[in-house]
## 1
Amino acid sequence: MAMARILGTICLGLVLAVAATFARLFLKARDRHRAAEDANQAQTERLHAEIAAHQETEAALAKAKETAEAANAAKTRYLVAVSHEIRSPLNAIYGYAQLLERGDSIPPQEAGGVIRRSAEHLTNLVEGLLDISRVESGVLQVRQELVRLPALLDQVVEMFRVQAAAKGLSLDYVVEGRLPAYVRTDEKRLRQILINLLSNAIKYTDTGGATLTVRYRSQSAAIEVRDTGPGIPPEDLERIFEPFERGREPDTVLQPGIGLGLAITRVLARILGGEVTVASELGKGSRFLLRLLLPEPIEAPAGAAAYRRVTGYQGPRRTILVIDDSPAQITVVNHLLRPLGFSVFEASGGTAGLALAEHCSPDLVLLDIQMPGTSGWDIAEQLRARFGAGLRIVMVSANAHEFHAGRDGRRAHDAFLTKPVDLDALLDMIARQLGLDWIVEAAEAKPASLRPPLPLPLPDAAVPYLVELRRFTKIGHVRGIETTLVTLERNVPESADLVARLRPQLEAFDLRGLARTLDDVR
């Protein structure tokens, strides 16, 4: 009996031990299974994450490819447009230069006007490209200088009168109230804004014309350019201010240009502390409004020539030294300054310029920056160390990105001019630096703007010539008008009075007035 209990106890212990072993094995197996499931889940999640990452990468690559293709297409359109814009004025300059070399009987005023306008167009194009680059890199610099506002506005308007007349358009200039003689701003930037706005108004208008209206009050100006062009769709009112964009209308897209004008205009206006807004109605025209702070100085500066022809200056003879490696630049300065009574010395390099300065003791030096050998900045420091603050040093360079206003206590020069140099701006700079009072020509009396109709009708023989004159006037063909006038006067002696009236208008490029005179002919 006792043995049986003992055996039962042993068997129960064995059963319990076996059960415990199986339980432990089961728990271990379950733990391993759970660990395997967790590992599989983690691996699955990693695979899903990798797949999602690959999909995002593929989407980003596709988007980058589309962006690159769009940028490449835009670059192609841009290069084609730039090439066209550069070749057009270059062709005019090249053609007129060849005519002058051949000794053709082309009026010097016509050749000079075409070459100057073409050069201004090229300059504005290059400056526009540089300005976009400077804005993107954040290095665009703004000057604060005294600007003759009425003269600037007159110049810009006159610049576009011939272009408007050639298209049969009117160009009106209205001043509401008083304009200050001088304001403080960046003249180059303000001129660029006005040119861009007026250029677009003339370019995109086929009938009617454009009007520039200026209002000035409380140290600020409101300059409005209104045209009678096709108008701008509402969806393009902001788009036209983007670089290389000119709207979606077919007539707009086909116009010459590279689509930088309005983009630069808005950026420059904001940099100058102003704003450009646009309102437009399809089929009726557009209205661009520039609001800008233009503070008026307390008193006008001395030495201002008011854009009248300078014939000399008062006081003792002054000496100017030109240091520039460009013979053309030296020639221009010589032709400008010698007739005014200046003693002009010239050097093509920095070392020669320093030696010449010791000999001639100049009152002012016009100094280029990039020359063979020593930099213009180093030459300026040596000149300042040798001659002191009494010598005026004006840097004249095509490297506008190197602009430094000067006279700030840290630099050796006194002022800076950017090539190509406006000759009026150069004279103003010389007057300010040397304290000169210019001697200017007396203003000529303007001819009456209204003329009575011609008293006698012309014979029938003059009719073909009048038709040709009207056609040439409509397209702005100045040479054609001049040749036709000569032929008309020779073949129809009764036309002498008419030709005498038309010639001064032609010489002044007043094609609109010329057209009105032709309309008076009976």
## 2
Amino acid sequence: MTKRLIDCAMGRAKCDLVIKNVRIFNVFTGKTERGDVAVAEGRIVAIGSNFRAKRVYFGKGRFLLPSFLDSHIHIESSMLTPEAWATLAVPHGTGAVVADPHEIVNVCGIEGAEYIKRAFARLEKDGICPLDVYLQLPSCVPATPFETSGAQIDGKESEREISRDLFFGLGEMMNFPAVLSADPDVIRKIDSATALSKPVDGHAPALSGNALCAYAAAGIKTDHESLTAEECLEKVSRGMYVQVRCGSSANNLEDAARAVDGYNFRRFLLCSDDKNAKDLACRGHLDDALRRLVKAGVPAKYAIPMATVNVAECYHLEGLGAIAPRYIADMVLVDNLKDFHVSAVFKHGVLVAENGRALFDGSFRYLPVSVRSTVRIQPVTAENFRIVTHGGRLRAMQIAPHSIYTKEVFVTAPAGELDVKHTDLCKIAVVERHRATGNIGLGLVKGYGLHGGAMGISVAHDSHNLVILGDDDGAMARVCTLLERAGGGMAVVSEEGEDVFPLDVAGLMSSADAEEVVRRTGEIQARARNLGISEGYETFMTAVFLSLPVIPELKITDRGLFSLSEYKIVPLEEA
């Protein structure tokens, strides 16, 4: 190969492809230059002019960038199968992702990760896969010991699995209290990855001072949970990479943008974390993040490396992230460096998407038995959702708008059965759905706005039990039954009727085509919004984080309310 690359660059041999008349963005200098880009053997051989070519693509003066790299994503959160996800993401310029499959692994175990990898691999044709997937071994299955998941991966199993070629690194270490206390099982997971020189991703909301230093000293190099610009700067100053998140229900993009400058921008990475199908189809992927970042005041010459070369260097992705000789020919044509409208996507020099349309077939579905029929619950009735109090103060979760963070607040209630109708409260229940234990955690949410029925979903980070919200016990029970019959999904029950959209793959994803998922999730989200859910909250996507106990401040699992600050289950009614 090397001789041919040299011969093509020198004009002694024909290149496989020449992209003519483009403005090439150089991630190393922050500048652009006009010219042609020559490709052979799937790699860039030269930038200049007068190349001999087998094929020519006319760039018409548009900007040529390296393909975009997502530094942290959970594919399952889109509710799309891997094949369908690729058909939406690749046309937006995505060339590679560092994917943590901890959603499906919490449901199906390691077989869930194997499913993700194999499903993506089936997109390959003629030796070219339109998307590179670097799979992380989930580090927290479950996220904490205070919930019931479908699988458990301890330090011994993690040590065995991380050595497989299946896994590129160790996924986000959400159980930061266990890291700080040097829990032997958690340390074994981290050490088994670092011993193999595999990266360890982080999850460290609000960590500062010595605690942050201890977390970084463990060998954890990234974090996507920074709340403020000041927190971003402290993490960068301690040698970490800060992931700027642009997701459907949570993002720190605007806050992080205030921290980026001409000196430190190489320590910031773009990621989406969790992005649903509708947002992916309508707003885009990392092209959307770049648009928003530039709008927030970050110059394009700083923003583009955050989606390209910075990610490649952080994760040692050899050959990715730049347009330069010997680099892999993964490239994106965009109209300008403000809107980042993608017109063409190349993978190893092969055109894989053009004008918003995938040029590969993602219609085939790989659906092994291991990811089907995963919802198993005890029968429920309205009685299961009754709350009876002694009279006094009750804990409630109050969600910050456009966020997944909650505050613990207290409300008063008279003795007897609690009726939340015509109040600013709704009930929340987490129903265990993996082992049919009958566990149901009950709590209250303040300010969500839901009244006149119930809604629920089988996506509930990270153990993915059923999360149900409502002000009517009978409607909550009915939602639970609908979800069980569908094998998982999204459901709404109100006076106007009921609707359910099945998520038949692990209770997390739909086997339907991307267009169908976008349409049906949009419809059921609109029905949920009609229950009065307040603006600033994603109807379902906000709800699915209310059961994630590693996010401040008060959350709920199938075992009850969980206080992160106290790191224990706490009672609904204050003693």
## 3
Amino acid sequence: MTTAALLPNHLAGQWQTGTGTGAGTPLFDPVLGTELARVSSAGLDLAVGFDFARQQGGRALRALSYGERAGLLAGIVKVLQANRDAYYEIATANSGTTVKDSAVDIDGGIFTLGYYAKQGEALGSARALLDGERIRMGKDPVFQTQHILQPTHGVALFINAFNFPSWGLWEKAAPALLSGVPVIIKPATATAWLTQRMVKDVVDANILPPGALSVVCGSSAGLMDQLQPFDVVSFTGSAETARIIRSHPAVASGSVRCNIEADSLNSALLDPAATPDSEAFQLLVSEVVREMTVKAGQKCTAIRRVFVPRALFDAAAQAIGAKLAKTSVGNPRNETVRMGSLVSQEQKASVLEGITQLRTEAEVLFDGSGAPLVDADPAVAACVAPMLLGSREPAKAKLLHEVEVFGPVATLMACDSIEQAYELIRRGEGSLVCSVYSADPAFIARAALELGSAHGRVHAISPDVAASQTGHGNVMPMSLHGGPGRAGGGEELGGLRALGFYHRRSAVQASSAALDALAASAVALKY
């Protein structure tokens, strides 16, 4: 069998193919099982690459204003739009996603880039950001302090997850590049092809200065060792890997700024006043099914636990199961397929193992595995049918509030009071998002105040916004993405708030005249 070609890395301003004794790590089509490409970072001089990014890429980016860097983002958007068809083909082949699911990743990433291009354009010719108003240092107003934000003189290392090879890159890179900080991206190996191709198209278009955007595919060995005090690292993935990153000397001793997005047991909550024929009930049912099946449940924001009044448990189980029964699973190339595969056989094994764990504390309410796969061989394809589990006594459960199954799986839970629901939701120990379903604005407000401290985002779906709401699991660039506790304790996006991670705040204590001169090259940061 012919070995697939190695995808080149881009580092130190040039394309480099990994060396070494091995032929690289293969990437597979998770539905057909065929080998697509190989990746390797062996033999790369990481120290030279990181230094080139800091010195060449960083210096060139910082020489531009925010408005000029926003223009670079707009240029990237045009390149990516021109190559969308190729990206969709790669996503289907390497991630096993349907066209609709590929759009969440590909078009979502392009949309986020466009959003930050427009936000940056409004910052104009400034080269620094004013943070707050001036403050007198004493009785005489001539001597004051002004806090400012300036781009860090380092590199941004992104270690990303397998589920969003496009959006995961651009939602981080957009605010970093707008801030004037060069990016080195390490995509998850299993789905690295799309990330690598997008970077290649942008680099080949000569939009960014050399060193501003790099990609390293394959092993991550040695990447953290290159980080220096003014660098930043952002990681999306498992809590286990997050612990390794946090304990690395660069972070623990060198104070490298670190942002983590890890595991998350996101919840959906139904207003106890709802009835089976209420719109709030129907909205919850539809959203749960969508979150279980979009990208085969491989979203960090997907609904994992569903809390309903005990009286509605059976009705909710039947309604969700009826919709899941209409979900065809198999080869995403077939237009009748609604849900594609998981990204790999390894991920399939992990999901099946997780289901086995959860079933020790929950009953099976719906199991779609009885339906045949569409145009796919079950012995080859990494497909797992949607499964709804249920617990009538979730207060007695432990694993249901601890184990995240990263696939098309959710657990329905019966609650005896809203106070019990709040307590059980908080057992997740910090999540990215909780969605609330109610027609009562006062209930939504109370729920938001109760749950906000345990979540990065509270997404309220009421009948009046049913047609316009953006979805429980969709991360929009104007809203915060991240979560406390087990969700990683990090923050991304949130409009211009995202720029803060890539800037350093300092206080300038000077005369009013000096501060006037400083303000001439800066702009007030307004969220």
## 4
Amino acid sequence: MSPLEELRHSGSHILATAVLRLFPEAKLDIGPPTDTGFYYDFDLEHKFTAEDLVKIEAEMKKVAEENQPFYRKEVSREEAAEIIRSRGQELYKLGRLADIPAGEQISFYQNGEFMDLCAGTHVRYSSKLKAFKLLSIAGAYHRGDEKNKQLQRIYGTAFPTKEELAQHLDNLEQAKARDHRKLGKELELFVFDADDVGPGLPLWLPKGTVLIEELEKLAKETEFAAGYQRVRTPHIAREKLYLTSGHLPYYADSMFPPMELKEGASAQPEATGEKYYLKAMNCPHHHKLFGALPRSYRDLPLRLAEYGTCYRYEQSGELLGLMRVRSMQMNDAHIYCTEEQFAAEFRAVNEMYLKYFKIFGLGKYQMRFSTHDPAQLGKKFVDQPELWKKTEDMVRRVLVESGINFVEVANEAAFYGPKIDVQVWSIIGREFTIATNQVDFAVPARFGLEYVTAENTKATPLCIHRAPLGTHERFIGFLIEHFAGDFPVWLAPEQVRLVPISEKQLDYGRALRDTLHAAGVRVTLDEHNDKLGAKIRRGELDKVPYTLVLGGKEAEAQAVSVRSRAKGDEGVQPFAHYLERLKAEIATRALPEKKKT
């Protein structure tokens, strides 16, 4: 573990120490460090409250000040079970003990009166924990399975210094203000109706639909320029398709349960008991499209793109606004190519990512290159070791030669090949997994996909799965938080609001509205009888990029008084001049300029 992970891991043990002092009847599950802090899961009849967090945090400070050393104790499996029972923690800890593979060393860590089954590592003394904060309480199913009991999870964070902690807490406050669920409601972008429609199934209001359609437009323009061809596939398919692809049974838990034809339910010739699945991924359908026509090396690379909807049965406890949904749209595509073409195609996909990062002003990113674990061949990954080595070497070479910022992570590849997960950071430093780029050397052969080579022989193509904008639900959720709802003018649901000072300028406002609308601008006219200040404040709250104030002088001069959210009051400008500038800003998808200080 890194020093920061050790500090946070120790924080989770000190948290458990404090909870047991205050609630001795609590049963413990696990308490690992995380990327942003730590947590511990408790089984307790008493429901933790915000007041409890204050008490627990105060007790943690006492534990820290006691300067308790952390001791490691290595034991046999039998000794471990006895220690767990003697402390009355067998309900969950014996199951965690059983998870430890045979032959692996079993250890406990003790600080003061607290002892926990743990591989470590920890700081030397509890007094190292000086800058920490308990943050929240949440429900968490044991082992992440909603069939199990729901435990109470206490989240906390810790940093080496109080200054770093203060900065993190400030970022968390900004994150709350930018929460896409909060802003989505305030800005009238989307809603959920868990009772009648179902959890995890977003309903897009007109303003939110603008975001979806603008991203679709961007994706289609970008892919057309890059030589992609668009296709369309159905939302359901027979079980056979997913058995052929290998997604069943690997992916069954993430797919909606099948629809089974009942006797007498259909006059069609399908057999009773035939199963159909909602589409969880596009690739099997695209493989069928590749195989629908004879292919030659001259047809490759073949880039098939689809702006489609997929459905995944995410666990209810994992659903989170737009970040984890059950109905998702994506600009998915599959590139069929030869081994010789692979490097150029894979590099081009990565360059497409970088283009999108620039458009959205994403300065910090990292590619997570996920490889396989040889010990999991035939279980988690297809059992073709030579092809794993070959394709992983190919991906690694492209990343290195392209100078792309990446880290390599073992045992997280797709079941059919290595993949890249694209991590980005919002303007306040929150990390998101946005997109994926995968290599598939196994599934095309399952479908019998072939092309005729230049030597007039048959060969199976490689396939690159890519979705640079990921699921658009998650990407929009990220953009809402990244921009805090202050979208660039090209993306904003309402781009311009016209604000007449009085009824005398209404006709002028209507004429400008018609002109802007004809130019493809999303514009509204505020015809309320409110005072000017109230109208301007309303535009600010609605986060409209441009508010154009229309007074008598502006109407007479065919001008507008421009107020932008990015730069403030920009003064009076001829309307024709402003319109040309606006159209250029939209066409180039420009990021807003910041106010000069």
